[in-house]
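TASK: fixed-backbone design
INPUT:
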């Protein structure tokens, strides 16, 4: 009798273990069968705290830095194909690549490709960490529009990255869609901005089920040849320029020299959208003076009360 009971217990335990393994396998397959988007940073180029800042918004941060205040960047992971991609090469690229690696769950220290919107300091200077003085990377694919490619190839120190084959530049064309994997496509499109050294682009990124719009920098929505409202309707998530909440926060600079759509202007423009369309909009790329960086600030409450979203560090979306 004891032998029978012992055998029965073993059988039941084996069945339970097998069931758990099947559930675990299904869960694992489900996870690896999707594309995920990760918010790796939300701040404007200069970061927070900002160099030379004497305002209250920075005062405590010099002594007590907030590790989540990273310069704007997105990460895309194709779990099925074990590939990852970085959008924007920021001064915070070291920490951001580690976070992207953790989400990709692999041992790769560099992504399968890097995309950049333009040649302003917060969006491309992270490439320097791929060079001889730091990582000494081997042919990391860098996707670039024509003017950006020419800028990197013909100006130091970036041309050294090309000469030493730390990076391999792959050309992009306006409105031309490329396939990164069978699950991910990317379409660059130009937007009006201060194009001193390169064109400025936004990206439409499409996964198997959902798509996003990423426009961290633009002068004003009215300056764009496209209707931003129509473009929002075509995607599931829109990550849009929210550099300044309003004009009052910048009183030490000529705002006309650094044009961006104020958040209050964007909310006014989008207020007639139905609830589900407004909920797509995630404001991103916050100047150090912008109250949207501070949890439960009046600015945050106003945005959320009006049905919009605020991008946050390490936020994840399934595409």
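OUTPUT:
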């Amino acid at each position: 009798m004891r032998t029978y009971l012992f055998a029965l217990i073993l059988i039941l335990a084996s069945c339970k273990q097998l069931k758990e393994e099947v559930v675990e396998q299904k869960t694992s397959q489900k996870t690896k069968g999707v594309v995920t988007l990760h918010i790796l940073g939300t701040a404007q180029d200069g970061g927070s705290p900002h160099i030379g800042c004497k305002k209250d918004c920075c005062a405590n941060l010099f002594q007590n830095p907030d590790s989540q205040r990273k310069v704007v960047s997105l990460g895309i992971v194709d779990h099925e194909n074990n590939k990852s991609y970085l959008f924007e090469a920021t001064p915070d690229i070291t920490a951001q690549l580690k976070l992207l690696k953790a989400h990709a769950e692999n041992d790769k220290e560099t992504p399968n490709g890097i995309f950049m919107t333009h040649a302003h300091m917060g969006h491309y200077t992270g490439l320097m960490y791929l060079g001889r003085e730091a990582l000494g990377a081997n042919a990391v694919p860098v996707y670039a529009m024509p003017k950006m490619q020419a800028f990197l190839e013909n100006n130091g120190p970036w041309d050294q990255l090309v000469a030493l084959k730390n990076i391999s530049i792959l050309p992009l064309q306006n409105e031309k869609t490329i396939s990164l994997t069978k699950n991910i496509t990317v379409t660059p499109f130009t937007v009006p901005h201060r194009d001193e050294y390169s064109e400025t682009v936004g990206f439409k990124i499409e996964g198997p089920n959902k798509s996003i719009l990423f426009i961290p920098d633009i002068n004003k929505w009215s300056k764009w040849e496209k209707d931003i409202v129509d473009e929002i309707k075509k995607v599931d998530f829109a990550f849009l320029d929210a550099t300044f909440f309003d004009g009052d926060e910048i009183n030490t600079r000529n705002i006309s020299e650094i044009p961006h759509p104020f958040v209050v202007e964007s909310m006014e423009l989008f207020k007639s959208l139905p609830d589900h369309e407004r909920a797509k909009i995630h404001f991103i790329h916050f100047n150090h003076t912008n109250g949207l960086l501070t949890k439960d600030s009046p600015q945050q409450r106003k945005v959320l009360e009006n049905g919009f979203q605020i991008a946050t560090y390490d936020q994840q979306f399934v595409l």
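COMMENT: Residues 4-32 have pLDDT under 50 and may be disordered.
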